[in-house]
Amino acid sequence: MKSEKFNVFWGFPVLSSDAISSVAYAGEEILWVLVPVLGLLSYGSMFYVALSIVFLMILVAFSYRQTIDAYPQGGGSYIVAKDNLGVIPGLIAGASLLIGYVLTVAVSMSAGTAAIVSAIPSLLPYKVPITFAFIFILTVGNLRGIRESAKAFGLPAYLFILVILVMIVVGIFKVKVMKYEPEPLYEIPTMVSDITLVLFLRAFSSGCTALTGIEAVSNGIPNFRSPSQTNAKRVLELMSLAMLVIFGGIAYLATLYHAVPNPDMTVVAQIAYQVFGGNALFYLVQVMTAIILIMASNTAFADLPLLLSIIARDGYAPRQFTKRGKRLGYSNGIIALGIISAILVILFKGDVHSLIPMYAVGVFISFMLSQAGMFMKWIRERSRGWFHKAAVNGLGTVITCVTAAIIGITKFTSGAWAVFVITPVLVYVMFSIKRHYNEVARQLSLSLDERPKEKIDFMKQKRYVIVPIDSVNKSFLKALNYARSISENIVIFHVSVDDAATDALLKKWREYNVGIPMVVKKSPYRSIRSPLLQFIESDEYGAGPKDTVTVVMPQLVINKWWANLLHNQTSLFIRTRLLTKRNIAIVTIPYLIFED
Amino acid sequence: MKSEKFNVFWGFPVLSSDAISSVAYAGEEILWVLVPVLGLLSYGSMFYVALSIVFLMILVAFSYRQTIDAYPQGGGSYIVAKDNLGVIPGLIAGASLLIGYVLTVAVSMSAGTAAIVSAIPSLLPYKVPITFAFIFILTVGNLRGIRESAKAFGLPAYLFILVILVMIVVGIFKVKVMKYEPEPLYEIPTMVSDITLVLFLRAFSSGCTALTGIEAVSNGIPNFRSPSQTNAKRVLELMSLAMLVIFGGIAYLATLYHAVPNPDMTVVAQIAYQVFGGNALFYLVQVMTAIILIMASNTAFADLPLLLSIIARDGYAPRQFTKRGKRLGYSNGIIALGIISAILVILFKGDVHSLIPMYAVGVFISFMLSQAGMFMKWIRERSRGWFHKAAVNGLGTVITCVTAAIIGITKFTSGAWAVFVITPVLVYVMFSIKRHYNEVARQLSLSLDERPKEKIDFMKQKRYVIVPIDSVNKSFLKALNYARSISENIVIFHVSVDDAATDALLKKWREYNVGIPMVVKKSPYRSIRSPLLQFIESDEYGAGPKDTVTVVMPQLVINKWWANLLHNQTSLFIRTRLLTKRNIAIVTIPYLIFED
Description:
Two copies of one chain form a homodimer.
Chain A: H1 8-21, H2 23-38, H3 42-70, H4 77-85, H5 87-119, H6 127-143, H7 154-176, H8 197-207, H9 216-219, H10 228-257, H11 267-276, H12 280-313, H13 331-347, H14 352-381, H15 386-410, H16 412-444, E1 464-468, H17 474-486, E2 490-496, H18 499-512, E3 518-522, H19 529-537, E4 549-558, H20 561-564, H21 569-578, E5 584-593
Parallel strand pairs in A: 1-2, 1-4, 2-3, 4-5
Helix pairs in contact in A: 1-7, 1-10, 1-12, 2-3, 2-8, 2-10, 3-8, 3-10, 3-15, 4-5, 4-14, 5-6, 5-12, 5-13, 5-14, 5-16, 6-12, 6-13, 7-10, 7-11, 7-12, 8-15, 10-11, 11-12, 12-13, 14-15, 14-16, 15-16
């Protein structure tokens, strides 16, 4: 990544795509709440809802400026909360972030598909497969390292901003100057009630998705060219400005053109269609919207695996997530994200509107913990200007906490409950993993006193070796020859489940006449493993409880992967069971089969 | 099973449940075709459709009598077709049977749930979870051996027959004698067209599901007390009679009471409700219907694993299916059946009507091949009375072939196509498996000349041993001690992906001062396996291409199963890769961790 550090011009589009793209659906989400109740009156109320969200946006952006100053190495909510509030708040923030990233992919991909099918309605029945295909392509792409060409995404982002700005200007001009009177494309429901506080809050919660992604810049500071903090702050400012203008502009256009949310055509598509007509510019808006939404998912594909690897390095997630693939991506995290978001898309039938309630609440919980962490930092450090800084983050904490509560309550039954169930479960799992790793480390740790002091005289070792047999064939012979190379004290062991087969085996073995005894045990319950273990532990066998018994088993290895599933089940089961015994060593001798 | 052999009284209910239960939905399936087109006129046409199916039923039953005579060890379609027509027809019959059994479970379980929700409509939204739960219970039950208490299912089957007979008698009496005029529970659609040949054939195909399960007796002959063939024939006759009466009776009641098929209430439930009113008898009919349908699934749980084990013993299916569990059930077959049928239920949302088209076609293909096999047998053997017998089975072949064709054509687009896709795929897979097993057997087979002639002097063996290291801990030490017990020629091998960690490891290793050299290789691409393989093959290491290199690796074994997923990934990958090399032996040394 060294050569890929961002200046402001490239950092802005790459790190802002998540935040800016969310305006593609945030305005629509507000209308989903208002229009069915208020009808035509919605477009008046929308102004105030949008205004509240813009206010929230400015406040959050200001708070994050301070995080950029304080965490030049990148201050994700997990790190900020863990450093300043403790492990549990850190893990809660981490869990909310993980949920948020998964939903970023599910929501953005679904919204991207919605933009495409709005332009090409004949694709409507294929929404889920299209979204699925996008996720698949992005997963594979990230495994193969497309992240490094993220810069190539910069131009389309600028083009998106440009084309939306053009749409806003032309849209306002057409109505205000040319006195064009828009015809709504869909019927506006008749009003059934006036605006209430509850309705307003519900609309506000829905619109809060506009803020998702705003934290990306503060995570990404190390990716900036120096002076990285200054550049990051500059990008944050530009991003906030772009979000304000685009979100405000689209909200305003929606009121002018009376867009009606529905499952077939997005609000942005309705506006674009009315402003430009069904010409190339309309299609350009849709394509650019889809592209910026895919870019937004791509940032989640970069960020979630990184976050998981940080959590895993702290011991709270499986260590596999710290492993980088050959192309330096955290492969396991990328695959996990792809699979889980694809499942979500299928469960929710690729419908943005039903995914949103879960999305916003997780994001705001992580905002809140990050703000609270910063607040505690200033209070504790009391560095220069701490009071002013603490005031900004304190206000941020209160407002994001209130917002999270509003979203949690108003959206509880429509999906937010899931976040309140999954987050504690994730935190519990992360704790259990950490406790487990600690316990294993304790049991494995070795002090200098325990080092082997005397030399083992390997010539004097009594080596007990058992070779299980099922039939006399080449793979058995290879295992037997290895056994003969490490010991003279070999027993061939056969479990009989079928008398006729056993007799045939014994006869063949006598013909071979190698001079090694075969022990045969009957297994009335057809279990192969128990008789072997019983024999090893019995007095009949010479090995005492302190002796190590070596079991040599051949394993067929076939050059067709699927064919391996047709073999080796028995030896696999024996292996698994034997491994639970302390004094056993299992030797696996591969026997290669080539098939064409 | 010895003590569990059936006399006629118990064999009849246990082996007939599949066949008899299918009448619970066969009549309804006919009406699904007729009612939307013919409206009120359907009930007249239904008589002729039912009559044709009754005729088919008698013919098939007669043909199967001859199979019972000829195959006292049980003559499933797979065996009969394979013996008399050759391997490919045998495998086609086997594949169709497998598909049929899976659909028996999916259809019967869905129909059982339909019977229950017809009685308790508030359960309607939970159809899929209820069906899923039934399948789960039956799978677990069969794994634990409930099959052996199959006799306990006998009484409910008699009770089902009894209660349906009472319903038929009372239903006819009420209309014909008491001159009751039934009010249909649902609106009958207005007629849109008159009966056509195509419509008649489609209705006929739908009703053919009534015959599914009729072959069960001929498979189950060894389960009868002697004289087993006579007893089996007696049961077949009783079963055919019961099917005739119940199918005919329900079809007749449906015409009298104008039952209208719909997704909420089954036809049988509608009839029972009109005949008995909403009282206990209505609920009894529903409960008994559900129970006999669950019994029908249970026969599939007994038969499919058995069939799979026979196919596997012939080498056409993975050998795992020949393995019996501790309770003598073929566990893998049971689990496979449970999973696949559950997936089908979810895919088809537990809707009997949409599963049926696939069901009947597979069943009739296996009927046809079984009949054709019997026909060829008589022609070839020319034993006493062969001409008469060949005539019966020849007619059976023609009629079942025509029926299979009718079902295949009329139901092609509504699901039968899947059978025509899946069957060849299954046959191809079975062939590939057989070819594979043959090839492996050829490569493994050992002639007497190849037996080891000279004694290996194990003291003179040069043993090359490598112990990979990641950190100096107790599990590594255990592996190292084992290595020291089999060789003096040990190399400790470390792959460095992080310089600082490697320096710390080397420092610690020097402190331990065991006197065994450590080889360190850098891995720029973070792969652990390649450097190890390269080292083994390099000139730097002493082993030549003919020497066997032993790699000793510790494996953590933790008493909590999930915790094992958090470890051992690296050693697992190394293992997999090393096993593809001819001259390597892998020693696994378990290190046990106890956690509470």
